[in-house]
Amino acid sequence: MTSTIDLNMVNAYIPGQADVGAETAATISRRDRLLGPAYRLMYERPLHIVKGEGAWLIDSEGRRFLDIYNNVTSLGHCHPRVVEAICRQVATLATNTRYLHDTILELAERLLATVPETELAHLMLTCTGSEANDLAYRMAKVRTGETGIIVTETAYHGFTDAVSQFSPSLGVSVDLGAHVRLVPAPSAYHADGADLADRFTRDVEAAIADLKRHGIKPAMLIVDTVFTSDGVLPGPSGFLAGAVAAIHKAGGLFVADEVQPGFGRTGEHMWGFQRHRLTPDIVTMGKPMGNGQPIAGLLVTNDAVARFGRDSRYFNTFAGNTVSCAAAVAVLDTIEQEKLIAHAATIGDQLRDGIAALADRHEAIGDVRGVGMFVGVELVSNRETREPDRATTSRVVNILRDKGILLSACAKGHNVLKIRPPLVLSSEQVDMVVQGIDEALAEAMSAGAD
Amino acid sequence: MTSTIDLNMVNAYIPGQADVGAETAATISRRDRLLGPAYRLMYERPLHIVKGEGAWLIDSEGRRFLDIYNNVTSLGHCHPRVVEAICRQVATLATNTRYLHDTILELAERLLATVPETELAHLMLTCTGSEANDLAYRMAKVRTGETGIIVTETAYHGFTDAVSQFSPSLGVSVDLGAHVRLVPAPSAYHADGADLADRFTRDVEAAIADLKRHGIKPAMLIVDTVFTSDGVLPGPSGFLAGAVAAIHKAGGLFVADEVQPGFGRTGEHMWGFQRHRLTPDIVTMGKPMGNGQPIAGLLVTNDAVARFGRDSRYFNTFAGNTVSCAAAVAVLDTIEQEKLIAHAATIGDQLRDGIAALADRHEAIGDVRGVGMFVGVELVSNRETREPDRATTSRVVNILRDKGILLSACAKGHNVLKIRPPLVLSSEQVDMVVQGIDEALAEAMSAGAD
Q1: What ipTM was predicted for this assembly?
Q2: Substitution target from A285, A303, A317 for chain B, most B beta carbons within 10 A
Q3: What dihedral angle (degrees, nearest 10) is formed by the CA atoms of B387, B393, B396, B397?
Q4: What is the fold, at CATH topology level, of the domain defined by B80-337?
Q5: Hey, what CATH class is A54-75+340-448 in?
Q6: CB contact under 8 A, B30 and A105
Q7: A151 three-class SS
């Protein structure tokens, strides 16, 4: 069994920290032996899941957990429409993009119709968000002839060799590229009243200047448009415009990483960047795109892809396969027919308001923020100094797990509860979540005071 | 519509070269508009496929094509066992590796049982072969502290930013890394009687020396163990041992890229490297692993992964998901229960012998080679000089397509027919293929003589 203590990963299982029971211990040991030392589990006492339905995950003992952390199965686990689409297509044809096929074209038309006001003109498909960001970087390099990259200080964009070099949230043991610059996350809570837009623009300009001082010009600024791993920081509508203008002025592209906020999660639009009234050169997407089926992709302007397309053909055996495309079309159908964007707004407000109201009796709640079905709850040991309270955050996450509610944490200080329920979460389920957080905070503080 | 003429990609559709008919032209035009300029189609007249069954693909007009090019759906299109496994699992649970789940452990046990004689100890999962090779390189860098890479001159290992830099078959417009060295493909046909093992070993040693002369030490030698894109060059059993010893002596890892030869295609073993009685430090796999479902992965020694595992946790949202793992287990079941490795040997021999017999009446056939269900047919304009005949090869591929048989070409000279049928190909289907190639060669030569 690995004895690694992972100081970098939020909410990682740490062997020996809690009694997990004999059966779970045996499974973990078997897993360590079979999958090796690079894999991690979540929670002090990892879950052995056997079934999913709607917002629920069910473990091997039949216990039900409300899954408000999973923005992959964003329509709920095993959504019948997606299951049906996959089963129909997998029994008919599973093949690649070197043949003509209608479903990929339907998917492209549908996705491009979500951005009619922009110059985004083409869909390209990958299997993972990491591949999408990796391909975005390849295209940005070809388009600009440059290599520099600007990201936020706790950004996560993926795990390929290139992308891990601009994913600082992987921790200090994973080297950043010499061509990568970090800018502070745009946190209103920690801005001391400064104008967030001005500050972020200046930070990006300074990063561009620093790259240039080292003989490197920028290929791209890439941001998750709700800054998930930085602590869920949607920020005011429009505040990104200055930074985007700055990167464009310096000759670089702006890449909107919509892997987390995309597909209606913000409750306002299909994509997070649409809050900012700007056109990215490239939009990357992933997680909820197939409600669990591996599919991800990019929307690109003609300008961003033209030279890459001419010189460097793109083929990915599994990407754009007929089955994954059928799943993605079913996801779009469901978002539309179940009116999930509007639902995400309403239920998201209820969730945020409910948690915000807990601040009256829980001093640890420093900030409650978010947009739509994406909520961040920043826990602090002192509301004046806004000191991150990592220990309480970890306790709250694990107490909630024991109460049957699954979420996790994020941010540089590991002190922000990260809540991203399936878009189908009901009002009653919101009440369960709010009550659970209320009780967990009370228990965590009393445990912390021991 | 793109007007690119792709000189780098073998068997690419080139707009305007042939009359494709109004309906296909309209679909291609719609596709170019929606997917942009980086996508390519195959054949002079691209196929619009709507259904697959067994070894057959069926187009939108109901025409049936014998698919002997598809080593993804290696059990045949829409194999009922895999369809059933996917449909059962997708309706039950589709989730990730941060929870405990039994199927991924079963998959790991089954795959590790295929290499009992080696030190390969752990399975890691990705979604694509490119991701597997990208992760192999990340681990090789961490393990060795070095960056150098040696590959063959027309190798293809994938499309990520890092992997495209060591995939010379992508063409001259995609830059190789400064840390990458190419060695000649180990072709017995072009060896002029030289010892293939000695020559390949010396070439790898020279590449190591050249890297060192430039201040770079090798992290890895990576080869497709049947050298697919180099022209299908399985070579004599054991000939790789010297090159592997050389890279180990220089401190680098040996990575066996089994994306093409893996899962029994060689008709001898589960993996291509097993022909050579050696243990890779890392084995990468992909294409046929889920019979079309996106899943790929790596087998790694404890030594190769230990430090990476400690410092750089690995998580990939979709990789190792329960549905893809269920598909992969069904693939292993099917290979075993339908005795497909033995079948690949028998039918592969029949296929190779049948094509080899055609050499008596077709001067263009310079060499017929392969192992199991992987056959390369090298076409030359002169048997003495062994001059590659790219034009005839292209004609043969497209004539066969018109006859209802799908294959493609490969190698530096674009002059090797690449034949990799589903492992379930029948003896009667082999007869169809041999007869088709016979007729196509006759037509191609008569057209070429016009």
Answers
A1: 0.97
A2: A317
A3: 160
A4: Aspartate Aminotransferase; domain 2 (3.40.640)
A5: alpha beta
A6: yes
A7: strand
